[in-house]
Design brief:
- This protein is of the alpha+beta class.
- It has six domains: 144 residues, Sandwich (Jelly Rolls), CATH 2.60.120; 175 residues, Sandwich (Jelly Rolls); 150 residues, Ribonuclease Inhibitor (Leucine-rich repeat, LRR (right-handed beta-alpha superhelix)); 38 residues; 99 residues, 2-Layer Sandwich (Phosphorylase Kinase, domain 1); 205 residues, Orthogonal Bundle (Transferase(Phosphotransferase), domain 1).
- The chain is built from 15 helices and 52 strands.
- The strands form 14 sheets. Strands 1, 2, 3, 7, 10, 13, 14, 15, 19, 22, 25 and 52 form a twelve-stranded mixed sheet that branches. A six-stranded mixed sheet has the order 26-27-29-31-33-35. A five-stranded antiparallel sheet has the order 38-39-40-42-41.
- A hairpin with a 5-residue loop joins strand 39 and strand 40.
- The chain starts with 29 loop residues before the first strand and ends with a strand.
- The relative contact order is 0.07.
Amino acid sequence: MERGRVFLLFLISDIFLFFNNSAAQRPGFVSLDCGGKRTFTDELGLQWTPDDQFLFGETTNISVANENRQQYLTLRYFPADSRKYCYKLDVITRNRYLIRATFLYGNFDNNNVYPKFNISLGATHWSTIVISDITTIEVRELIFLASSPSIDVCLSNATTGQPFISTLELRQFNGSVYHTPYEDHLYLSVSARINFGANGEAPVRYPDDPFDRIWESDSLKKANYLVDVAAGTVKVSTKMPIDITTDLMPPEKVMQTAVVGTNGSLTYRLDLDGFPGLGWAFCYFAEIEDLDPDESRKFRLVLPGYPDMSNPIVNIEENAPGKYHVYQPGYTNISLPFVVPFEFRKTSDSSRGPLLNAMEINKYLERNDGSIDGAVIAGVISLFSSADWTQEGGDPCLPVPWSWVQCNSDPQPSITVIRLSSKNLTGNIPSDLSKLSNLIELWLDGNSLTGQIPDFSGCTNLKIIHLENNQLMGELPLSLGNLPNLRELYVQNNMLSGTVPSVLLDKNLVFNFSGNINLHEWARKTMHLYIVIGSSVGAAILLIAAVVSCLFMHKGKEKHYNQGQLRQPLPIQRPVSALNDAPSETAHCFTLSDIEDATNMFEKSIGSGGFGVVYYGKMKNGKEIAVKVLTSNSYQGKREFSNEVILLSRIHHRNLLEFLGYCQEEGRSILVYEYMQNGTLKEHLYGALTCERSINWIKRLEIAADAARGIEYLHTGCIPAIIHRDLKSSNILLDKHMRAKVSDFGLSKLATDGTSHVSSVVRGTVGYLDPEYYISQQLTDKSDVYSFGVILLELISGQKAIFDESFGGNCRYIVQWAKPHIESGNIQGIIDPSLQDEYDMQSMWKIAEKALMCVLPQGHMRPSISDVLKDIQDAILIERKATTIREGNLDDMSRNSACSPLSIDSLDLTAEDESILRPTVR
């Protein structure tokens, strides 16, 4: 057993341990109590083992109300750094397993900072763990076929709080359970496993399920989960034994309960985490009611919006071997959305309504085979297995690299840098290092390495080699001089001997071989010294130039602050686009006469606000412009004017309003923009333009996507990042093609390098203002995300951020009004009536639930604007597909449905025939 790592060995044995409940724990089970101190057996008969052999992390006890299970009274947590922390579990190759990890926060750090971090299986990203409260247990399950004798489960990439884990469990399956045609390169991520007709909220698991799958009760109350239940749905149960001898072997206790649609239908709506995507879905049926000889039970699966999927008829009597036998039809390859509405409807010749015992849905997760150098580097660390630096586990590059390794960004990455300076390395330099074909830097200095320098001629990309301060012997290999990209070679203070190869002296190379008393150079010593010294002088010159430049820029900034008016060019701190090498650095300065000519002496007003009035103008070249005239001469007003000029003259994106220039003459402060022909989003939702040009749902989604792209550019494409601080529907403008652009940067702030927030006096618009920012005065990019969530709710509902007309004069905030509707599943109660049912319910739900995430009270729990944009883009795809179907030749049921279709896609995996698209009976 390697010291300092977790090696959890499980043996297939003929010995079964019997417990008081007469159940025997199966071989192939591992239950790891993270942070625990002793082995124990729980009330289910499962044996728990402490992870006290784990080298990294800290352990702590927690206390959570109503939680007394011993495995949840402790946890192990890790630093919030760039490393990953891995558990290694031994498995049996070509066997299928379920791996389960659970996370109970319990406020272990006494900070109430809910953690967010990643969990991976080997090189494959498994899931992002987002803790939402102190007492909820987050559970992640993955079903996989073992391809090697061990697996690594790793935690990494904490964005808030610290990574932690409560339990880690491994369960081995028998035979063909969960066999799929794609298991060699796809995992199954468990999304839903539901016991219908359950007698209570407690789940069914071991020992009732011999594989310890967790079957959730359909009585468990979850927001937006198993809602829209049809009238006449009743629970039925039996104590009769059920024959469960199918390859999936659902537990008998689950099959002894069911729901029946006494009015002829069963309807539900499921939210599936991780979807849309390709999945595996099966239903479980067993006839547990007594039917008279002249009675029958036949029903049809109805998936709204996709009539081809609605053809299969379930006839339990015909398909099961008899009463009290399991029938399990399903799909091994089905494309599912995030929100799945489904119905079982009895056929016209059936006397009994549909019946459903259980359902299981998993999402396919593509396995990442890891870096191309995994096997090579494994051979290297095997030579130093007792060292702490070899214990990080998992893939050397994915999902994050080891602390002493850097990798490139290829889809299948390779190692480019190895930093093992001063790691107490002994023995010869591992010859396997020469097999790293993409290696660029090798740092082995400050160790006690002996022997000769190996041949690195296979590492043609090597640029930097540090071997100094070791005990290396022998001659310098001639092959070093043949490395085409070598630029730095350090071998000083070793025991090298012989003559320095002339090819090394001929190269343009920083080369130090001093301190090797038996290593000689017979020629070109002067040239060698010149190269080293020249490099040092060049570095010094660059350093001096950088210092002078910084002093000059600082002096320029001080001068600017003493100026009374803006001058051109503007000597200001500038946000530099990460996407442009040479962004525009100056704003055009218009003369007042230019502005007066373009606006015909400010003849046509097209808008106004607290800042002043906006006028329509037209330049001599025919370009239409919008001219904003600042009315306030206050210090605050001038500062906001200067701020907008500074920002807009240096940021350029198709979804940000184009800034054309400014004017400061005769005491006037004027900003000039491109003219947006279709006004503001606010006007189209509930303003002057609403009646004449109501915008449909797909256009609202496209507008949201445009605005999100503009905000994403501010947050991620500028250095330092820009926080808008006043996002609202009136600051989203629409051009003649109804493309959206974000405007009004008077209140925007530059984020400070190295900090996550800006201390700021609270500014913004009531109704859109982030409550956390209001309380703490700490401005972050998540304040913009909150405001954008309010805009999403406006797009859904057509309501103002603050409204009172329909509520007897009582002022209502849209967040307070919409949130309970969405959480209770009554989204129809907030959808804008002007949309007239011309929308897809899946895309509507996706945006509604994303909006709720955006307006969460704690900023760190909100998604990034990039995450929001991705979901909007997914909703657009869903809506476009649904629109195509609505406009096609569908039957009446599909045409009238507000739910989006389910589609079945073929995988680029194996050459399966069309049978993959039909229900599979297992």
